[in-house]
Design a protein that fits this description.
The chain is of the alpha+beta class. It has one domain. 28% of the residues lie in helices and 25% in strands. The termini are far apart.
């Protein structure tokens, strides 16, 4: 999906965050876009576990990016993919070792 040519950077940010908000809503996520009438809107969503995340859209050279968290980013050309990453669970689904293997490995039965 190509980006819309907007007249101002603020308008571009609003359009990109609106697209991301739509993608997140399709995935059942709650979304709020704060400062939506300004040139610096911020999208807020809630990840699994209740953790809130703020997302901003920034321009780097000729390309636009979604940024969130300390180190997470995604090209703004991929709002669907960004929504998948934002909507993903932050906690691993860990299966209890003994539920999969009733006896620990290396266990040798005593022989009399």
């Amino acid at each position: 999906m190509s980006l819309v040519k907007a007249s101002t950077p603020g308008e571009t940010r609003r359009v990109m965050l609106a697209r991301l908000a739509d993608e997140l809503r399709k995935r059942g996520r709650r979304v709020l876009v704060a400062l939506s009438d300004s040139d610096h809107p911020v999208l807020y969503t809630v990840r699994d576990g209740g953790r809130r995340v703020a997302v901003v859209a920034v321009q780097a050279g000729d390309s636009w990016w979604y940024l969130w968290g300390k180190h997470e980013q995604m090209s703004a050309d991929s709002s669907g993919l960004a929504a998948c990453f934002l909507g993903a669970s932050t906690e691993a689904d860990v299966i209890d070792l003994f539920a999969r293997r009733p006896e620990p490995r290396g266990h040798v039965k005593a022989v009399a």
